[in-house]
Amino acid sequence: MSDHAPNPVIAGFHPDPSVCRVGDDYYLACSSFEYFPGVPIFHSRDLVHWTQIGNALERPAQLRLPAGTSSSGGVYAPTLRHHDGRFWLAVTNVSDGEGNLLFTATDPAGPWSDPIRLSGVPGIDPDLAWDEDGACWCTFAGIGQVRIDPWTGRTAEEPRKLWSGTPGAAAPEAPHLYRIGEYWYLLIAEGGTERGHGVSVARGPAPGGPFEPCPANPILTHRSTGHPIQNTGHADLVQARDGSWWMVLLGVRPRGGTPGWHVLGRETFLAPVTWVDGWPVVGELVSGAPAGSGAVSRDDFDLAELRPYWISVRSRSADSCTTKERPGWLTLRARGASLDDADVAFLGRRVQHLRWRARTLIDPTRGSGGLAVRLDERHHYEIEAADGRVRVIARIGSLRTVAAERAVPAGPLALGVHADDLPPKDARSGPDTLSFGIETEDGAFTVLAALDGRYLSTEVAGGFTGRVIGMYAATGEAHFDWFAYEGRP
C-alpha cells in the first residue's frame, strides 16, 4: 500500500466514517441523516477504492424518520466493528424518541437486525470496544462511558466521565476506543465540525482510564491553514494486513471567495499513521481527483430493486417509488407538492464531483416532476416539466422564484443540469454555477437558467449534509426512463 492516497477516497456527502478490517477486507459506514435507506456500507481491499455494498438501515422497522424529522436530523455518527464473528453497528437517531441504537449482522452487506435500544446511553456518537474479559464498553460524546450488554442494550452501571479533550475546546465528540499494545487509546474529535475541527488522543492502562493526553494534541487539524481540505476530524483508526496504520476521517473542500463554500458536504478522507514514542502521528492528507472522474453512471431502471446508492427523503414506499409499475421506467407518485415539503416523492444520489452533469428522460403526461439539486427544504434548485412547459425553480431560504420558463412539445423530455467551476474573481466569488436546461435527441443542451451555486452550500444553508441530485414528482405521477450522472475532471 502506498504511503499516500489521493483524496477524498469516498467523495460527496459521506461523513463520520467508521472502519474495520476482517482479514484482507475493509468495511466502512457513514452517517446518513434524514435520508432513507440509512448508513451506507462500503467494502475495499486497499482502503483507497471503495464500493457500496448496501445500506444497513433499509427497513422502516430499523429506521424511523417521521415527516417532522428536520433536515440534518436523523442518523448520526455510526461506529462499525467486527467482534466474535459478527458485525456490530452503533448509531444515534436524533429523531424524537429514538436515541442510541445497536444493530448486528453476519454479512455487512445485510440484512442487519432490527434495532437494540441503548436506552441507558446518553448523548450521541456511541462507540463500541471489547476488553480481554469480553466486556463491551460504550463511549459517547461528552466524553463519557458505560458498560453495556450488546445483546440486550442494558447498561451495567451509571455512565461516567472519562476525558473531554483539550481544555476549552468545543464539542468533544466522536470517541473511538482501542487496545493497541500496552495501552488503551481514546481518539476523539473536538473544536466543532466546522473550520476549527481537529483530532486529539489520550491513552491509559484500562478502558476507563485514567487517560493521559498526547502532548502533541491535536494530532490532526487544518484550522488556520490554507490547505484545500478543511474541517478535518471525526476520525477512526485501522491497521492494515501489512502492519501499517491508517486513519479515515471527514473533511470538506471549500472553493470560491470568502468564507469559502463547500457544497458536497463532508467527505471521507484517508491519511497514513505512524507511531512515535507510543503516540499516533498523522501523515499528510494528499488531495486529488476522486475515483471515477469522467465515468458515466447510468441507471435504466431495468432491475426490480433499486441500486444501493439511491436515497429518498425520510422514507420510501412502493406506492410512491417503484420500478415495477412500468417496466424499464422509474415511477414516482407525488406525496408533497414540491421539494419545499418534508414529505416528497424524491429519488436521488449524492453528488460526488466538483464538476459534473446529470440528465434524465421524464414522461410527465400524468403529472409533473423533474430533476432537482437538493440541500434541504429551504435550499434547492430544480427543472420541472408539466403541461407542455418546463420551468426552472430556485428556493433560497424564504424566497422561491421561477428563474426561467419555456414551452416544450408534449411527451417525454430530456432534462439536464451541469455544474461548472467559477474561476475566482474576487473575495465574493461563489464556488460554481448550476446550469439547468433541456437536451435534444442529438445531445445538444439548451440552458434555460444558470444559478449561483453558493446558495446550495453548507455555509449558506447550514446543517451537516451535502448536495443530492435526483428526480421528483410534484403532482400525479412522473415516469423516468433513465438517469445518467457524470463526474468531470
Automatic annotation (TrEMBL):
Any single Pfam family the record assigns to this protein: Glyco_hydro_43
CDD domains to which the protein is assigned, alphabetical: GH43_XynB-like (cd18617)
Xref: Gene3D superfamilies: 2.60.120.200, Glycosyl hydrolase domain, family 43
InterPro entries recorded: ConA-like_dom_sf, GH43_C2, Glyco_hydro_43, Glyco_hydro_beta-prop_sf, Glycosyl_Hydrlase_43
Superkingdom per UniProt: Bacteria
SUPFAM superfamilies: Arabinanase/levansucrase/invertase, Concanavalin A-like lectins/glucanases
A GO MF term: hydrolase activity
Domain named Beta-xylosidase C-terminal Concanavalin A-like: residues: 298-486
Keywords: Glycosidase, Hydrolase
Family: Belongs to the glycosyl hydrolase 43 family.
Protein name, UniProt field: Glycoside hydrolase family 43 protein
Classification of source organism: Bacteria, Bacillati, Actinomycetota, Actinomycetes, Streptosporangiales
